[in-house]
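Onboarding guide, step 5: your first structure request.
Type a short instruction followed by the sequence, for example:

Predict the 3D structure of this protein.
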Amino acid sequence: PLRSETVGAGPTIVLLHGYAMQPDTYLPMARLLADRARVVIPHILALPGRWTFDHALDCLELTLDELEVERVSLLGHSFGGGIELGLAARSPDRIVECVFSDTLGVSREFGLAREALSDPLADLRLATPAAVSAFFRSWVTHPIQCAASALWAFTSDRSEAAEICVMAGIPCHVLWAEHDRIFPRDHGRLLALVHLLRLVDMT
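The system replies with structure tokens like these:
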């Protein structure tokens, strides 16, 4: 099971953090939900052993088992949305609903890497101080996991997982920021419309 931050009580929401983020980065948002739900934020980079996508899903399932969670809502931000798709596709009967926030699309996107590296100072200006701090802490404490997870994010195709979620009838919501430089709004439309995620909330 993964080390996690947990706040609140009630139905469980698992919040899957963005690339190279830390669970504590999301605590302010989790506390907003704490009066109506138990929010669990696993550290999806701090896996025991080598980081692989399947190993990450194994550890997440063990985390849910340890928490005795039978049914769960998933909220995935950025990189975490790709993990969310995989977890939902692997265990659809366990998922109440999925929320994808500025998340990885469903296909290989090396263009995202080029965009992210084209103007890193502009990316930093969009990030909060807490996010910048988390990014550097993650790379200092888990450099191999950060590199391996980045390679997975930019080379894996998530369309099959999206189709499984659709066929399973999992309610899905897509939320997108207006000025996301790395994940343009069109990526959100593609995720929501082309791959038929059933319930769409565009912001």
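Each response can be followed by summary notes, for example: DSSP finds nine helices and six strands in the chain.
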